[in-house]
Amino acid sequence: QVQLVESGGGLVQAGGSLRLSCAASGRTFSRYAMGWFRQAPGKGREPVAAISWSGGRIYYADSVKGRFTISRDNAKNTVYLQMNSLKPEDTAVYCCAAKSTITGDGYYCESISYNYWGQGTQVTVSS
Q1: What is the phi/psi pair of residue 107, to 5°?
Q2: Contacts of 62 (CB under 8 A, 6+ apart)
């Protein structure tokens, strides 16, 4: 079992920055691929960024490329999402997710792939 707790959300003006953290407890974090997803009001959940267990493979949604950076610190059991140049359309609840990996070092973009989810943190970007 893995427990995930997000933090770092809040209210920010357009053009501002936030850094989300996802702290994991439980089983060996370093063997988990991680992802960040978001869900805006009235919309479905969408992938934002994903990172392999080693950190060597990374995915970004086209809408956040060049503005968001995903990273992880396996010694601290934490994955981060640095969000710069925020736009009002980035407003959503952001959740992190973990997927156990036995072999390989891939990232995963589909929510159905993930075993564990955090509760989410609200990000609101005002215009």
Answers
A1: -115, 165
A2: none
User: What pLDDT sits at residue 26?
Assistant: 76
Distance CA 56, CA 17 (A): 24
* Contact criterion met (CB below 8 Å) for 78 and 113: no
CA nearest neighbour of 78 among 2, 27, 4, 10: 4
pLDDT computed for residue 29 by the predictor? 76
pLDDT in tens, 96-107: 999 998 888 889
Q: Once rounded to an integer, what is the mean pLDDT over residues 37-49?
A: 96
Q: 17, 9 in Cβ contact below 8 A?
A: no
Q: Read off the DSSP letter of residue 43.
A: S
